[in-house]
């Protein structure tokens, strides 16, 4: 029998009780026994069969509660633990169904880790979990904000002054931190309109940051 448990970001004795607020109990596809405590969501605690990812979210799968602030060291540790036991190579002698589930789980795990590692993608995913995904139709931004972004982008393109670019980069990173805190507060209080506005702004500032970093690298 597989013995595998992720390290949760909260006391283990509270793990099952807390997780039930965010996820549903599932039945094992193979033995049909209920898997009520989702810390055992990777393998069935009764028959040891690997379990599909359906009905879970990225946070749940990686042993975290949904939230904008993430312990990246814990995230990486849980990712590596999962990766070591669900890799398709581990199921070469198992049934075809278990091989397929393993492949899907491995792909899902990589997507989950990549998304939760990046603050902007993490913020977008939290909106999706709230049923309010950000897209071109509901994206928003004032004319003044968009005009400011265009001016900053033009300044980045035309400037070759390394000191000026470094000052701009510091300002952009500070702005990202401030808007990130605004998003965290909004998503926690379920003010989804404000949360969307914050993510919309973050998208532009991360683009500016990437442009600045690239320009500074070219000037070296």
Automatic annotation (TrEMBL):
GO terms for molecular function: ATPase activator activity; protein-folding chaperone binding. SUPFAM superfamilies: Chaperone J-domain, HSC20 (HSCB), C-terminal oligomerisation domain. GO terms for biological process: [2Fe-2S] cluster assembly; protein complex oligomerization. PROSITE patterns: DNAJ_2. GO terms for cellular component: mitochondrion. The keyword Ribosomal protein does not apply. Keywords: Chaperone. Residues 57-129 form the J domain. InterPro entries: DnaJ_domain (IPR001623), HscB (IPR004640), HscB_C_sf (IPR036386), HscB_oligo_C (IPR009073), J_dom_sf (IPR036869). It comes from the Eukaryota. Belongs to the HscB family. NCBIfam families: hscB. This is Co-chaperone HscB.
């Amino acid at each position: 029998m597989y013995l595998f448990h992720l390290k949760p970001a909260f006391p283990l004795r509270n793990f099952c009780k807390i997780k039930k607020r965010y996820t549903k109990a599932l039945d094992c596809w193979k033995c049909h026994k209920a898997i009520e405590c989702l810390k055992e969501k990777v393998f069935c605690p009764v028959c040891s069969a690997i379990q599909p990812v359906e009905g879970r979210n990225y946070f749940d799968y990686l042993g975290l509660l949904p939230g904008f602030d993430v312990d990246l060291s814990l995230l990486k540790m849980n990712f590596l633990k999962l990766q070591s036991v669900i890799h398709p190579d581990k199921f070469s002698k198992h049934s075809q169904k278990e091989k397929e589930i393993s492949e899907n789980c491995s792909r899902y795990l990589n997507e989950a880790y990549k998304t939760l590692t990046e603050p902007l993608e993490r913020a977008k995913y939290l909106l999706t979990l709230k049923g309010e995904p950000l897209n071109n139709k509901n994206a928003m931004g004032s004319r003044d904000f968009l005009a400011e972004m265009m001016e900053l982008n033009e300044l980045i393109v035309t400037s070759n002054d390394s000191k000026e670019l470094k000052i701009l980069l510091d300002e952009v990173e500070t702005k990202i931190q401030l808007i990130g805190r605004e998003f965290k507060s909004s998503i926690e209080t379920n003010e989804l309109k404000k949360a969307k506005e914050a993510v919309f702004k973050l998208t532009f500032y991360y683009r500016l940051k990437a442009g600045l970093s690239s320009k500074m690298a070219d000037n070296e």
